[in-house]
Amino acid sequence: MLARMKKTLQQNRWYPLNRATKTRRPIWRNTATLRKIEGSLFIAPWIFGFIAFVAFPLVYSLYMSFNLVKITVTGVHSSWVGIQYYREILFSDGGLLYDDLFPFLREALVIIPIILVFSLMIAILLNMKFYGRGLFRVIFFLPVIFSSGQIIDEFMEQGEGTLTIISDLKVDTFLQQYLPEMWLNPVQNVIGSFVLVLWYSGVQILIFLAGRQTISGSVYEAARIDGADPWSIFWKITLPGMAPFIFLNMIYTIVDLFTYPSNPIIGKVTTDNYGLSSALAWIYFMIVLLFIGIVLFIYSRINHKLATQR
Amino acid sequence: MNKVKQLLLGKEVDKGLLFRILMYLLLIDVAFIYLKPIIYMITTMIKSKQDLLDPAVIWVPMKLYAGHLIDALGMLDYWKGFTISVTVASLSALFQIISCAVAGYAFARLEFPFKKFWFAALLFTFIMPPQVTILPSILMFKEFGWINTYWPLIIPTLFGHGLKGALFVLIFRQFFSTLPKEMEEAARMDGAGALRIFFKVMLPISRSAIIVVFLFSFVWTWNDSYFPSMYMFGASDVPLSTSLSKLNAKLAMEAQEGGLRAFLEPIKMAASFFIILPLLVLYAFTQRWFVEGIERTGLVE
């Protein structure tokens, strides 16, 4: 019954019967344009907002980055200085960008995998059926509520960021022996604020949990019947199935990490020198884009490999 | 022997006793890491002078002391900040639900010119650090006379932008595109337009997505101190998130002038507690739907 209804629906999709004239007319004659107008109406507010709150400020900020901007009572005055600010930030006055950027990038490279692995692990655990699961879920989503605020900074100040077990195990001396100097500081920083890293994983856990639900249980059932052990089930089913979500989480983590207000470079975008700050913001944005570009590239490679394996 | 082995390892690994113990250990550890700051916050803020100075008192204070709580309430100008925060956060959450759902629906189901281009623009908005556009935005809002008011925080949310607006559009887009198409087609056959389909059919069934977006939007707006500090730097009435940094500055100044140092921490903790308390209450009431909603929406791209 339902299948037949669906079939007639499909048949009549492009040539619906006009009740008044008892004729069939192609739908695109008028309806397609109508649909487009409808769609445009729906998206219009968003596009207006995009132009007003994203595109215009974006172009203006690019313009400001090439200008000496002075704000006086009478208005905004700008005089063209060309790429002076870019040159200053990138070449002559390296301290402005590089001193913070390189340690930060190195830290990011350490933090991102930790967040991903940790949240994947927690999500898989939370997806299992066990006693007290509801309670654990409630606790594990708490970071979503806190991690965006200054409250976290407050906790960090109180020394809640470190795990005492790390100093107990003398991890520090171990690291000093085996890590090259360039990486020592970032790794120490990350370990020193390890709790913070875990606190950043709230949304990621949610994404992984939602992603885990998209892998159907029958696949696991089949693997179990075939006698696959959990270890290979994880590597052969769960991980490939989660690949898009790992990628999504990677993008989310990068965006989150790089736009977090207490991020050192972002703190330097101030209202003191509009031109210089704008140039800095643009350079920073290009770095973020580059980072995401690299992730995209790696992801497409992995995806390709997975596709050919199957 | 075999029986013991089966009990320990189970028929499948995730059913075995050994695995269970390990799993609970891990979960409890992480839960403790998440809860410890909150426990610390609560125990510190109710410690009296003697308890703070007594090294034997670490977690449980000898007696309850409410003085720091009262101090913090006064220093934060709590009720004013609370009203502002509630107003701003709930208005932006409400506006973002509607405007982001409309945009998400358009991206998921409707046709409009240059759709691919606008979708790229949406992704661009998502990954762009807000700091790139902050300075021109300040100038623009100054031109409108909106600086030191709440308008710069609220108006963009009317159009599906504002704090993390792009992410919410993506969530709604994802949600709507997973719904079966037949539902709309049936409504279309009955002669309903997109507007009616959206408000009568799509929006009512998207409860889980709405809850997820509401909670995220509310919480993030509540916690955000970056935009208020940029747009409202000269205002005396600010949301709670910004009043914390003001309180910190005030305390630091007092500490420099001498004395008080031992009591900075409990006051700060009390202030932090009051700032997140409304969120905790909100979360306590919504967490059930929230957890369910997350699973149903497939907060997924």
From TrEMBL, chain A:
The chain crosses the membrane at residues 41-63, 108-127, 134-152, 190-212, 233-255, 279-300. The lineage of its organism: Bacteria, Bacillati, Bacillota, Bacilli, Bacillales. It is found in: Cell membrane. GO terms for biological process: transmembrane transport. Coiled coil: none annotated. InterPro entries: MetI-like, MetI-like_sf, UgpAE/MalFG_permease. It comes from the Bacteria. Residues 101-307 form the ABC transmembrane type-1 domain. It is a multi-pass membrane protein. GO terms for cellular component: plasma membrane. This is Sugar ABC transporter permease. Keywords: Cell membrane, Membrane, Transmembrane, Transmembrane helix, Transport.
UniProtKB/TrEMBL annotation, chain B:
It holds the Pfam family BPD_transp_1. One of its GO terms (biological process) is transmembrane transport. CDD domains: TM_PBP2. Its main location: membrane. Residues 82-286 form the ABC transmembrane type-1 domain. It is a multi-pass membrane protein. The chain crosses the membrane at residues 17-35, 82-105, 117-141, 153-176, 197-222, 267-286. One of its GO terms (cellular component) is plasma membrane. InterPro entries: MetI-like, MetI-like_sf. Keywords: Cell membrane, Membrane, Transmembrane, Transmembrane helix, Transport. Belongs to the binding-protein-dependent transport system permease family. PANTHER family: ABC TRANSPORTER PERMEASE PROTEIN MG189-RELATED, ABC TRANSPORTER PERMEASE PROTEIN MG189-RELATED-RELATED. This is Carbohydrate ABC transporter permease. It comes from Candidatus Pristimantibacillus lignocellulolyticus. The lineage of its organism: Bacteria, Bacillati, Bacillota, Bacilli, Bacillales.
